[in-house]
Design goal:
8-stranded parallel β-barrel; alpha/beta; 10 helices; 243 residues; binds 2-phosphoglycolic acid; TIM Barrel; 8 strands
């Protein structure tokens, strides 16, 4: 099980201190990996404080290039030096700013170069879902990533299915709908020899819906936004996986 917290553009040093103190005071299920994706300014501190409580830090985004004239961007090498072990790639909020499937594939190549694991996010918007095109759309988003040769593909650590209509809206996909998409993803990954890759669900995951989602056969974890900002809620989500 992979339980991941995406803080998005939330948090400051005081928040971080309280968060990891809180994490240290709670008990966490074993046989789970807990990831935290803080804003870049907090990455180094999160890597240190997270290590003390068994949480692994990652970057919310990376640029494909190693360095260069890319104002405001961070390379995989830079976030790795700051302590990141993972990077979110192609989150829908980044895709909405113009990131393409090819950009996401190039980011995974960069992650591989820097020794990071990539957590690639996919997911359809409401119009695509209503047209009954969701599965083809989501599998299409992965095509460029799965076309990468080793060693880039070896850096693929997990995939998160996050239907855009469920992110931050309180409107979660039903466990059955999420499971159906995860099954389709699994079958596609099996063809690529990656059937064992963890598949996370994301989109309004909360303590009260985590158990139903995580008990689906092809849901191997969750990527949590809003509810991950409350360490008690995030812990309750992690514990729901073991109930
Ligand atoms: P949410 O965000 O849990 O607030 O819906 C999930 C995400 O965007 O990763």
């Amino acid at each position: 099980m992979l339980i991941a917290a995406n803080w998005k553009m939330h948090g400051d040093r005081a928040f971080l201190t309280a968060y990891f103190e809180g994490a240290g005071a709670l008990s966490w299920p074993e046989a789970q990996t807990h990831l935290v994706f803080p804003p870049a300014t907090l990455l180094e501190r999160a890597a240190e404080a997270g290590a003390a409580v068994g949480m692994v830090a990652g970057a919310q985004a990376i640029h494909p290039a190693r360095d260069g004239a890319h104002t405001g961007c961070l390379s995989a090498e830079q976030v790795a030096e700051a302590g990141a072990r993972w990077a979110l790639l192609g989150h829908s909020e980044r895709r909405a700013q113009g990131e393409t499937d090819l950009d996401v594939a190039a980011q995974l190549e960069a992650a591989a170069r820097a020794g990071l694991r990539g957590l690639v996010c996919v997911g359809e918007g409401l119009a695509v879902r209503e047209e009954d095109e969701a599965e083809a759309y989501v599998l299409g988003q992965l095509a460029a990533v799965l076309a990468l040769p080793a060693p880039a593909l070896d850096a693929l650590g997990a995939i998160a299915y996050e239907p855009i209509w469920a992110i931050g809206t309180g409107r979660t996909a039903t466990p059955e709908l999420a499971q159906a998409m995860h099954r389709a993803l699994r079958e596609r990954l099996e063809v690529a020899g990656l059937g064992g890759l963890p598949l996370l669900y994301g989109g309004s995951v909360k303590p009260d819906n985590a158990k139903a989602l995580l008990s689906q056969p092809d849901i191997d974890g969750v990527l949590v936004g809003g509810a991950s900002l409350d360490i008690t809620a995030f812990n309750a989500i992690a514990r729901a996986a073991n109930e």
